[in-house]
């Protein structure tokens, strides 16, 4: 079964035994054996592996993984070094540059953010090649809702960055007044000019963390 390697294992142990997850697991075994599925099987839970429960400072919610070869590696919006950053990620970097003055990085790998406390969580964790949303409605949403609910229960403040309709639909799960929820349009080229550019979320997240005596996030990437 799943081994994440930190406190998420204990927190999610009951989830991995539920009927919906066992059905999802059988579906995934069939999919990985018969089709090209992203990310690679060992990368599915990278967001949780890199960012333990008690280390989460901010949550960025994506939809489902990139569906092109060599792109997805288990962190929303992120691609490995050597892969051209997709347009949405390029827009994220442009917004950080506009807010904080950091240069746009030459790569799109966000692993360092994950290690610094940014949970880069897609709401659906797998996808068929070339077929976006192909694993939607198979059970992942229930699983990731549980992840968000567990974070909502935490006393230590967290910033939730919800971009676009799919992510913003999760705001209903975040009821703890200790946390900050920031919402705007998706960074996709189709919607970035409708409120993502100029949103100020990266600076606002750090201001909130500072006010709560939490070390702010270093959004720079080398």
Descriptive account of the structure:
The chain has 222 residues and is of the alpha/beta class. Helices cover 32% and strands 11% of the residues. The protein is built from eight helices and six strands. Helix 7 links the parallel strand 5 (159-163) and strand 6. The mean pLDDT is 97.
Mean pLDDT, nearest integer? 97
Annotation, overall tally of beta strands: 6
Taking the sheet with the most strands, its summary is: 4 strands, parallel
Strand content: 5-15%
Q: In percent, how helical is the residue content? A: 25-40%
Give me the secondary-structure category.
alpha/beta
Rg, Å, rounded? 17 Å
- SSE topology string: HHEHEHHEEHEHEH
- End-to-end Cα distance, whole Å, is 35 Å
Query: Which descriptor suits the 3D outline?
Result: globular
Total of helices: 8
Low-confidence stretches: none
Describe the strand arrangement of the main beta sheet, using strand numbers.
3-2-5-6
Short structural description:
It contains 8 helices and 6 strands. It is α/β, with parallel strands linked by helices and 222 residues long. It is globular.
